[in-house]
UniProtKB/TrEMBL annotation:
PROSITE patterns the record matches: HTH_TETR_2
Species for this entry: Paenibacillus oceani
Keyword entries, A-Z: DNA-binding, Transcription, Transcription regulation
UniProt xrefs under InterPro entries: Homeodomain-like_sf, HTH-type_TetR-like_transc_reg, HTH_TetR
GO MF term set: DNA-binding transcription factor activity; transcription cis-regulatory region binding
Location of the HTH tetR-type domain: 16-76
Protein name: TetR/AcrR family transcriptional regulator
DNA-binding region: 39-58
Length: 222
């Protein structure tokens, strides 16, 4: 690699790292102060940079909000893809995917769930389409594509029933499991809010219901 190309590569890598650092700082501020009350000055202080630097990378706070939320979904894509690539039947893989959703109730994922919940509420209350929302939607489409591939495989390996509409089933199960796990994760960490049934127990029951619904009859697998 010639010196000019090496310099350009290092410059791009440095820019990417700076952008990522700002996004991580922004997420901490968003979770601590809320999306509405957080300011670009708060984020600059959190990342130990000047506010002008933050604006140079993200001209509007809205762009930074969307970038942080999209990054959270993108982080999940790699995890889901690893399940899609593993050996086993479609039903085995769906069980692993549901286990990932169940794991979102663990303390280490609380901040991620809070951020996504706050973003969805923020987007729902916005009177105009959010700038760069396509980035967030694209990340969601990647997750949907992974689920779709797994279920399509199931129509060929005989592990799931063949009389269901793939896309409708995919959307319903993914949305239900994802939304429910996120809600239970948030409830679990609300001080003084008690539940008669642990979140993990509820999600394991939902997982069993879904897998029993999807499983092909014995005659179809013979």
């Amino acid at each position: 690699m010639d010196p000019k190309s090496r310099w350009e590569q290092e410059r791009q890598e440095s820019k990417k790292q700076r952008e990522l650092s700002m996004m991580e700082a922004a997420e901490r501020v968003f979770i601590r102060k809320g999306l509405e009350k957080a300011t670009m000055q708060d984020i600059a202080a959190e990342d130990n940079v000047g506010v002008a630097t933050v604006f140079r990378y993200f001209p509007r706070k809205e762009k930074l909000i969307v970038a942080v939320a999209a990054k959270r979904i993108e982080d999940q894509v790699a995890v889901f893809q690893s399940v899609a690539d593993m050996p086993g039947t479609c039903l085995d893989k769906l069980g692993k995917l549901f286990d990932i959703f169940i794991s979102f109730t663990e303390p280490k994922y609380v901040e991620s769930m809070r951020m996504l919940e706050a973003f969805e509420n923020y987007a729902a209350l916005s009177t105009e389409p959010l700038e760069d929302i396509a980035l967030y939607n694209q990340a969601h489409h990647q997750v949907s594509a992974i689920f779709s591939t797994i279920i399509e495989d199931g129509l060929h390996d005989g592990s799931i029933r063949s009389d269901i509409p793939v896309q409708e089933t995919l959307s319903t199960l993914a949305n239900t499991m994802g939304i429910f796990s996120k809600k239970l994760s948030l409830q679990k960490n609300i001080i003084m809010l008690e539940s008669d049934l642990p979140p993990e127990t509820q999600l394991l029951l939902l997982k069993r219901i879904f897998l029993d619904y999807l499983k092909a009859p014995v005659a179809d697998r013979s």
